[in-house]
Amino acid sequence: MLEAKDWLARIHALNIEQPLRIMNVCGGHERSISMAGLRTALPEQVQLIAGPGCPVCVCPEEDVYQAIQLAVHANVILVAFGDMLRVPVNVAKGAVRSLEQAKAAGADVRPIASPREAVQIAQQNPERQVVFFAAGFETTMAPVAAMLLEGVPDNLSLLLSGRLTWPAVAMLLGSGEAGFHALVAPGHVATVMGPEEWGFVVEKHGMPAAVAGFTPVSLLAAMYSVLRQLIEDKRFLDNCYPELVKPEGNPVARRHLARAFDVTDANWRGIGIIPASGYALAPAYAAHDARLRFPDFNDAERKRAGQMPPGCDCARVVLGRINPDQCKLYGTACTPKYPVGPCMVSDEGACRIWWSTGIRAAAHA
């Protein structure tokens, strides 16, 4: 079995005559790449680009705002995955700008690690309304779907902000300004949905693609695959994570997703509407839709103000247009302790990852 050093040697032995840019979609991939120092280990002609792999980063601002308003004004127990508590919204100075601040102001906001915790909290508090602010990609949405299919208490509703991964890449490739030559596809999503979901990258756009896991070995194997495809002018979808990624993915998880949710056009923060990129509750579960249960807090006007905060370049980071340290706020106004944009909040956000690996100043500085 080849080790990371063997894959690196193979990559360096390739005849790479021009700069080549590889996009990795997954926030977990970006973390593994940065922590292992793979960017500095690769040939200088190879550039790795972080893509739209952070659900916290693209969660619409109006959804976060609605969650804050429910927590502060509706006397509900608001539960959410931990990263969502620190995502800032665009409000006037002095106003509550995150769920974390809402909690500090007295709202009943509770971080959870799994959907089962949301059910348990609702069961333990039958006299209270519990709202589960559920944001995430396919791997997160699958257990949320399973929770719904198993049955949930009447006092539990969902503020759903689920997204599908591949439509964002399809949007980039269809824009004519993709800015990359090959794709490393997310192994965890492919584990659920199957590697076939990424076939369009090769079939429609003629671009090499490889599914990768989260170790340097798997990532380097995928990078070697797509680089060799480019050099030899061969295009195919390679599975470099066969231990877990199987044809057609996880059939049970896919059935759960199909039964619990409808796929709909959806807003991505700072990017806009991407067709068929969001999950919405299926009609059978409309009684548990927080947007219907609390219509007074569904403020459509937020969509006009719901982009990234002024000066924040998170959207361009998510789209791979710039590196995190090329944002003018990076390392100055925006740090993990005081995040301006969502990319500095989550462990899957590229800005937070780069900061965590020691890049503390903006490139222009």
How does this structure look, described?
- There is one protein chain.
- This protein has 365 residues and is of the alpha/beta class.
- It is 38% helix and 18% strand.
- The strands form two sheets. A six-stranded mixed beta sheet has the order 4-3-5-6-11-10, sandwiched between helices.
- β5, α8 and β6 form a beta-alpha-beta unit.
- It starts with a helix and ends in a 9-residue tail after the last helix.
- The model has no long low-confidence stretch (mean pLDDT 95).
Radius of gyration computed on alpha carbons: 21 Å
Largest sheet: 6 strands, mixed
- Any idea of the CATH class of the largest domain? Alpha Beta
Proportion of strand residues = 15-25%
C-alpha termini separation: 43 Å
Mean pLDDT rating: 95
Number of helices: 17
Structural class: alpha/beta
Read across the widest sheet, the strand sequence of neighbours is: 4-3-5-6-11-10
Question: SSE string, helix = H, strand = E?
Answer: HEHHEHHEHEHEHEHEHHEHEHEEHHHH
CATH superfamily of the largest domain: HypD, alpha/beta domain 2
CATH topological fold name of the largest domain: Rossmann fold
Task: Give the total of domains.
Answer: 2
Low-confidence regions: none
The name of the CATH architecture of the largest domain is 3-Layer(aba) Sandwich
Question: Quick one: overall form?
Answer: globular
**In which range does the helix fraction lie?**
25-40%
Q: What is the compact description of this entry?
A:
By secondary structure, the chain is of the alpha/beta class. Helices cover 38% and strands 18% of the residues.
